[in-house]
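Issue: ligand-bound run for zinc ion - logging full I/O for the record.

Environment: standard queue, default settings, no custom constraints.

Inputs:
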Amino acid sequence: MTARGGIDLGGTKIQAVVVDDDAHVLGQARHPTPQQGGPPAVANEIAETLREAATDAGVVTSELEGIGIGSPGAIDAEAGTVEHARNLPDWEAPFPLGPTLAEALSAPVYLDNDVHVAVSGEFHLGAAKESSSLLGVWWGTGVGGGIILDGKPWSGRGAAGEIGHMVVKRGGARCTCGRRGCLEAYAGRAAMEARARELVAGGHKTDLFDIMEKHDRTRLQSGIWARALDRGDQMAVKLIHRAIAALGAGIASAVNLLDVESVVIGGGLGSRLGEPYVKRIDEAMEPHLFMPDRPPGVHPAALGDLGGAIGATLLVRERKPVETAS
Ligand SMILES: [Zn+2]
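Outputs:
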């Protein structure tokens, strides 16, 4: 038996898995992402989390065939560097994450974008494993995406899949990217939170921020939206409805262009809100579909919390490892 490692690096947590040849999870570990010390501290913690997952699986890291990492930010897969990593503290300049971990863990390391890795996991092992083409939409702080056509990931010149910046309303709401009318300006959690704060400043009432404080949070994370929706909070209901309408228009437009067999909805909000909300996105797409009598299958992500890390293990078989000094 050979074992592979996988890491899902996020702004709040680092999830590590060790899997067997059939991608069954043999061991796992999860640590909080260090908020101080910058990239070197994060790299240290990744190594520590993976060692723990390896111990859980009964192996040492040098026995692993390889370790795949899904990271936020701009990735240079060959050099193994990560820069402009959103949500990660003090991570703007390129940091050699791949070579650093290859040395710390004595195994080959493979690096890719976190959303692409998670979408690939759903394509090969999860909700779209019967499909030959897929659009993955990762609905969270932002709205990310990944495209797989004829079984192969399509990354364009490196930046394909940015469905969050499809224009759903010309001259519309200001997006986190600085432009106007992007899907993310309506559906991204960060944009929705900014809108909620504006409404509160304008005298509107909501329980969203009370729930946030009660749970010792400083941001409106997915669980807070879910709780507010459960209690029928009117502002939460309206903002989520607005997000779903925008997702419907954006995803349907992408489907009109690509005619993919499946759409998988994942990400923090997508996973937390789950099936009933994915069904609403499906319904919101319908009026915008050019071929409404033959819609794609629209599914929630199936691999759950470990999906990103399991998807990252697939890189070991698909890619070349990052370059190392030795
Ligand atoms: Zn944008």
